[in-house]
Amino acid sequence: MNFIGRAEPLDGLRRELRRGPATVVLHGHYGVGKTLTAVEHVHRSKQEYDLVWWISAGQPGLVRSSMAHLAPHLGLPGPGVTGIEDAAGGVLDALRRGDPHRRWLLVFDGADEPEDLYELIPEGTGHVLITSRNHRWAGRTSSVPVDVFLPRESVEFLRRRVPQGLDEASAADLAGALGHLPLALEQAGALLTETGMSSREYLRLLERRPGDLLSQGHPPGYHTSLSASLQISLTELGAHTPAAVDLLRTCSVFGPEPIPRDVFFATRSPHVRPETAALLNDPIGLSRAFGQLGRYALVKIDNANRTVQVHSLVQKLIRWQLDEERSRAVRTEVCALLAAAAPDDLLSPQAQARYLDLLPHLEPAGVPLSELPEARRLSLHVLSFLYLSGNYATAERHARDLISRWTTAFGEDDPYLLKARQSYGNRLRDLGRYEEAYRSNIAMLPRLREVLGPEHPDTLSLLSGIGADLRSQGRFREALRHDTQTHRAHVRALGADHSATLRALHNLGIDHALSSDFEGARKRHEEAYMLYKRQAPAAGSPNLAAFWNSLAQSVRLSGNYAEACDLGEEALAYGRGQLGREHPRTLRIQLDLSVAHRLSGNPDRARTLARDAHTRYLRLYDVDHPETLAAALCLVNLMRVEGELDRALSVALDTSERYARVYGSDHPYHQVCAADTALIHRLRGDPGRAHLLNTATLEHLDALLGRDHHFSLAVANNLAGDLAAMGETAAAVESGRDTVRRLRALVGDEHPMTLAATANLASDLAAAGEEDRARDLAESTAASYARVLGPVHVLTRAATAGERMTSDLDPPLL
């Protein structure tokens, strides 16, 4: 079709873009021709660009994927190699740098929610063009309005669209009746061309039928002529292909985004209407029906992507025609089709892509409030999909909405509602809202026990969640007792090798680590990992990633730093390859691996991992999220190791305040942060302040966890260093002897924590005049360091040189 008019918006667009690197929005009502205007600009300006890339932005979940597929055109690895997130990130970086192309144009078509697009708009040497119905873009970036055609443009358009038998006067009458709306003009022209109907007959039908189509429910800002044109098309289409009209009714209940073509496949569901079932069982008839709808411009068919799409206004007008009984039947039918199209296996990339395609259609079809069991299971699967893809905040909002609606519709004891409540509690914990998660889960436990039974899988799953809540609140001893009982209940009810039992065993391993039983933790994590790995699907499993990382963490806590690095690198490769670089599980692995490399004496690798993880956490969550705080503290310890003491102190003080705000001042993790801060004070030459802070910290930890906990003993080791720096040698020796004795009993004679405290005790004994004892202890400790960490490890060299050893702490990610 030849382009008509639009001189004013095209000129305005060109002016805005010529000002330099720019982002410009074409905005206006639906159907006014924003997309065609963008296409025309691309056509007229193609010689000015080295690269033009068009992205359909109506479905936010697909925008990043479309961006990622640009990567090969920039000489970058595509999404099949690096994953969508990394490929899209590489594209954005290349566009910002103008490498390899400085003159590029990115078009985001149909971007109606500015918030969905902000982080994907590159700044750089090129241009970004956005089309949108949303007026909220105005004021945020340069914008050019697109309105209806001028009368002369409408006439020209129609006479080109209907070349036979439409004179200027008839075209003017028709254009005026259609309100010069380009979409209405296009649809009218299609009808006249396809059917041979005269403009006079069209106008007569238009006058006779408006009441059938327009009511108080029609969208504001649209002229009557589009809906009237729709009815005429339906009349003509129904005369020779009635199945196509019925298919359009089915499509009207989906969302306005592209509908996967294979949603329309044969199903034995009793909830699919007989006429639809007959069409779905006739592939040739189904293709013919879609073809007729496409010819009448009632659907947009994208054969390349195997999708069909119906304009939202067409959908609304079709739905308006349905009586209550038929509307209910069509919605039930579409709910059944969507449920049948949604895979139960949520882990494969194909399944995740399918859920992205289906998500925009669930709400329009009424899936959340459907009574169909398969539709309700689909709603719960969506919660799982959002969690598995790392969209915790979206999953929490979705669960909260389901709970509200299902409580009203189905009652408090509805089993699907109970599952949604359980998912909600888990997502609250993922978001760091620990108290809320605990209250939600504890409140639900009696109801689950009553409705489902004490050893029902859902009840057992909730018990595991409560154990995680206890850990998150710093109640480590309670969590250990609770999870010991929960694991036993899993074994009784499900068997020792069941995946849920292995998750319970994994949780128990975390409890043992938090209770300073590192070997017990390692044993449980190794068992859980090995058994689960045999069962894990070939595609990415967040659970397998978590088990793998916990095993590496327990190995590191046991003092085997090199082995922990090896395991952690393997786990990180799995997480990045199977889950993506910004998946929360991948970032947890990355942060733990940074700690292992720091302790192994590999600061460069540790720094790279920690900085990248912290940046991604800030993008994924916010500065106060527990995992962002853990990443910040990891950076603090790296800065201290590398001698950046002033910067380390600044970040440590800020992070400590945030820990207190997020967890509470008495939480063990806040005390861990305080201990790391105190260590920096001493290294900066202020042992008095370090002593005050460490003394208060140790008192808190003694009360919370007891002295024989590795958190407490690490602080005690540093406190002895404060005393030594203050000249209180006798007190330092007394404190050191007690700490060494306790560490030997807790983690063994040759654990790096024990060796650090022993080396410090040797230094303090020498200062106290016990030179023979000090020399023997120092030599044996240096030899132990060489055996455990290797002769060239930085700690071995420090111990040999008689340097003061420090004990830093990193709170585990729960």
From TrEMBL:
Q: Which SUPFAM superfamilies does this entry report, sorted A to Z? A: P-loop containing nucleoside triphosphate hydrolases, TPR-like
Where the record annotates domain DUF7779, the positions are 240-326
Protein name from the UniProt record: Tetratricopeptide repeat-containing protein
Q: Write down the NCBIfam families for this protein, in alphabetical order.
A: FxSxx_TPR
Q: Which Pfam families match?
A: DUF7779, TPR_10, TPR_12
What InterPro entries is this protein classified in? DUF7779 (IPR056681), NLR-like (IPR053137), P-loop_NTPase (IPR027417), TPR-like_helical_dom_sf (IPR011990)
